[in-house]
Amino acid sequence: MGASIMKITAITPGQQDVSTIGKSAASATGASFQDILARELAAAKSTAAPATAAAAAVAPIPATLKLDSLTLAEDAISTLEKFSAALGNPAFSAQDLEPFAAALEDETAALVSLKNQLPTNNPLASLLERVATASYVEATKLRRGDYHA
């Protein structure tokens, strides 16, 4: 069995000349791809510029707000840790745990208040939301009686 080898010597009618691929100007039906792409890129750049300027115009978050937020989040986490230790101590009664619930509720309200002063997309706002949620849940569980034997 011999393998036959086919040699292409010419382009037959109906085949496209590869030298013109991607180089045609405009088709008979409209603008070329390059023209449309250039127009769309220019439009995208012109709409992105005001958004960037608006983002730069947003007032920076005051350092005192950041510091107060972090300090309060740290305090709330500390209260949660102390509450956890008190729950593990059989010497504590439900009445002994009451101050923890009150502190967690106060810290939750303060965390939410500070969070509302921050932009919604700020990572610090997300942190405050998470700590406030944990504090609220634990205080609610105690008040509801989930931790009573």
Number of strands: 0
Residue-averaged pLDDT: 80
Order of helices and strands: HHHH
Number of helices: 4
Helix content: 55-70%
Helix and strand composition category: mainly alpha
Keywords:
149 residues; mainly alpha; 63% helix
Q: What do you see in this structure?
A:
With 149 residues, this protein is an all-alpha fold. The chain is built from 4 helices and no strands. The longest helix is centred in the N-terminal third of the chain and has 25 residues, at 33-57.
Briefly characterize the structure.
The protein has 149 residues and is mostly helical. It contains 4 helices and no strands.
Element layout with pairings:
Layout: H1 33-57, H2 63-87, H3 94-115, H4 123-144
Helix pairs in contact: 2-3, 2-4, 3-4
